[in-house]
Amino acid sequence: MLLTLTEQGKALHTKAQSVPQCILAASGINLEQLKSMQKDLLALRGNLLESL
Predict the structure, then answer these.
(1) Is residue 16 one of the residues assigned to a domain?
(2) Predicted model pTM
């Protein structure tokens, strides 16, 4: 089975590609801060899982 996007779906896909950058800009932090935060959150998650 082959699935393809409609023209409307393709337009939405193109429009949605800017969402991550818009979220980052709205957050007020830069990419390095985001990466650091992600690393810290993953470590926290790991610590919490180990304590279960």
Answers:
(1) no
(2) 0.64
